[in-house]
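WARN no homologs supplied; continuing
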Amino acid sequence: MSATPTPPAMKWRPAREKIRGRSTPSRRLAQSLREQEVRGEKAIALAQAGIAVFVLALHAFGFRQGIPGFDSWLFLALAALIGSSAVRWWLASEEPLPERRLDALSVIDVGIVISLIWSYQFAFNHPAGGVLKAPAFLMLLLIVGVRALRFHPRPIVVAGIAAVAGWCTLVCGAVITDGVAAITDDYRQYLTSFHILPAAEAERLVALGALVLVLAVGTYSARRLLGRTAHLSDYGEALEAARQHLQESVHARWRAEAALAALDRREAELSEQNRLFNAALAKMSQGLCMFDQDQNLLVCNDRYIEMYGLSKDLAKRGTPFRKIIESRIEKGLYGVGDAAAYLEERLASAREAVHNTKLHELGDGRIIAITHEPMEGGGWVATHDDVTRLRRIEAKLSHMARHDALTDLPNRIQLRERMQQVLSGDAMEGRHLVVLVFEIDRFKEINETFGPSIGDALLQGVAQHLRRRLDGVDMMARVGGDEFVVLQVADEAAVAAAALVKRVHAVLGTSFDIDDQSLSITVSVGVAMGPADGDDGDELLKNADLALGRAKKDGPGNSRFFERGLDERMRARHKLEHDMRVALREGQFELYYQPQLNLARNEIAAFEALLRWNHPERGVISPSEFVALAEDTGFIVQLGDWALRQACEEASHWPRGLRVAVNLSVAQFRSGHVRQSVISALGASALSPDRLELEITESVLMQEGTEVAEVLGKLQELGIGIALDDFGTGFSSLSYLTRIRFDKIKIDKHFIRELRDEPNSALAVLRSVVALSKSLGITTVAEGIESKEQLQRVRAEGCTEAQGFYVGRPMAASGVPALLARRKRKPQRESRAS
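OK structure emitted
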């Protein structure tokens, strides 16, 4: 690439020599010349044939005045010329061209034309000298000139020499035949006279020779030019081919360099992969080994060596698998059993052709999971994973899944399994399963009073007492909260159940010392016996729970056995709960309103909203039948919200000044949304806050404490009235009056009813409540007024308002306007009667 460039003259010299014919023509030039010569010969044949056909047509058609009849000799000469042309066409198809035969054919063609010219004297009946006129000579020139179509001097020269010789022969023949005088008998033919004839014919011969020479030189020059053009074309193509070869070489070099770079990158990648593979192999938490089809070691990692304490010699490539197993046996790293059997089992597992995973417990207590993966062509790869810790965790998780986390007693899952096992066993024939369920009485109060930690410690203490002192039972379990279950299989179910109940009360009827606190507890017990009370574990537990619920209703420390009536009542309870939820969705609930009479003005001051259920099958259902159930199930929250919204909506259509009173339950306060629900109901109905009263019972204050007081205080700030319902039935009513600023106190109807039976004591209570309320500025409402006498008495004692059947029975919202209208038409009736 860095050599000195060749000068331009030196570069072009070989090309010039080729163009000048100093070297062998190229294949391209030879082929081009060959094709040109073939085309030229065929063109000569066609031209000659065309001349012959033209002359035939000239003699055959319409020139009868100047050309006499058709002569047979003339026809034969022209036919011979056409035949010669056909032969020439045929010879042109041969390869290579038969030059000598073509030369001979050219001579023959000239001879035919000379013969044709000589025959004119016979065809036209004129002297021999007539053939020397210009038309005959021009025809001879045409025969010679068409040879130039081949672009080669040879046929021109051959035909020209033959034409010169033939014309000389023709002239001599004409002079000999007619004589010079006959030829020059006319002045106009002066040029052909004896004196001018030699010169004239010499001029024709010279002209013919000059034509031949010019055509020969021209065709030779054209041939040289064609050759030079072909050489230049070849040289250009050679240069283009060289340039393409150079480009291909450059591209090949680039591809080679790119391939080398790719190989370098691939080598680097493989090197990096090998490094990462070795690092991964070294850092694997599992042991890995690979053996060939002859059970010889191919590779293993450090973890595999460490797991089995292999020496360096055993970890080398080519170590037989049998030696490695024997090394384990020598170190005692095999499970319980015969060493020979372990060796045989390991060797057999190596020959297995399927993927598998097996657990092996070693002599040191470790558990190894060996995963065997066969390879194509023989051999295998195995991973050895120490799953000892995992197995212990699984065992712990399994224990936790089947045991209570706090007491470590069996949980509900294990209890059900055991009950199913006992009930389905053959040993149960003639025997019974006693299922005892108990709960710690007032455990929630203990938890809230002393804290959850004390409650948890108490549950653990109960479990310890059961384990230590309640022997001979089949199982003890904790199934949730403070609920425990005891199972016992017995021949005499009733006797065994009664004895078991006594033992449980005796074991747990003691004090528990927890963090300097001495706690004495009682338990409520429910019992069910299988298969009499159920042949399924879940059914027995459900029935025992029903009995427990009945025992808890009877009071702390009670025990009850399951009865079929309990199940029926529970089914009815569940159906009522379902119907109650459907009723709210389908609009079966309705609010009734009971008036409250202002005793001073003797007019309606407010209405209390009371819930009614229009059941499609049972008719109107009293709140006493479903409100308690709604509170137990938590459905009272949804029901109470509906009642609050409905009451506010209907009261918004009453005359201004009339208030509506709505009861709130404990569950509504526990939900934490009382204030939001009240504000939402007022906003939706556009009812003024000072026309709404919220009634709560003492049970709400007893269970919810200061949180209720805070919520009530915020509602009072909005202008909403707060009333204490059923005053006097609780235990701490007076203390609540000092903590919460009530707007109204409703004296329980129990005291009003006792004004007749025990007038002194009931009247004393009434007077004291009224006096206390007046001193605190609180309105008093006497409930349960059912007679005129009761109404007069509470008015006389200073009660502010009265409510009861005598004042007005509960009515639908549509009856309120009618009541108000009647009261307006008869004002002051009760006042005049009094």
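Residues 1-23, 62-69, 186-197, 830-834 have pLDDT under 50 and may be disordered.
OK
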